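ok so dumb question maybe but i'm new to this and my supervisor (M.) told me to 'just get the structure for tRNA (guanine-N(1)-)-methyltransferase' and walked off. so i did the thing. is this what she meant?? sequence i used:
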Amino acid sequence: MKKIWIITLFPNYFDSLINFGITGSALRGERGSSLEIKTIQLRNYTPKDYKGVDDAPYGGGAGMVMRADVLKEAFMKGIVEDGGYGDNFKEKLHVVFPGPRGKTWDNSYCKDFAARFSQEGSKDLVFICGRYEGIDERFLNLYVDEQISLGDFILTGGEIPTMAIIDSALRFFTGVLGNKESSQQESFQANMLEHPQYTRPKVFDGVEVPEILTSGHHQNIAKYQKEESLRITKIHRPDLLEKDKK
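this is what came out, is it supposed to look like this??
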């Protein structure tokens, strides 16, 4: 059973991830998957409730910093000890911190991440959800294996990027998607956006579905969809096409 651990001040954030949609089904052990998600309430590992989770930064400055000792307590007791990982836990766990120093998350990075951690015998995952001005540098250096950034913008905490990383990566785990070809025919595959999609009704507000899509000629349809994918990418994300030239 592949476990995904999350240390957070707000475990309820992840209810929607677990209870709804394709990802939720996979995390509930359905769809033939062997995945389990566990949230660790950080404040349970300090006697002072929220007031003991963070403190003022040495050297001054605005905001508060999450304490290294509290994070370690949650990690060692809530995950390493309760999860039965033992003294060689570093060989069994991969700790991720969503933050601005990390490499930017994109489809290529997502597929690589999934390949590393979806294989049988690969490490279980731990996500640390930061808050306030961040977390103590010493915890980052001693316990975090990988930092990941969603982009050059600021969020109020690490819960949203953690959910985005998990949701997008799990799509590449075996058995999560009902049709294994689905993840290969979406936007960002081959550095292009997906072709336009249509469904019933055949005519909507006077606009008809492109005739070729109802022709039943699969080879011509595939050619048309590839051309449309290129056209849409040139209009909306020409930067993706530049990646092929580098």
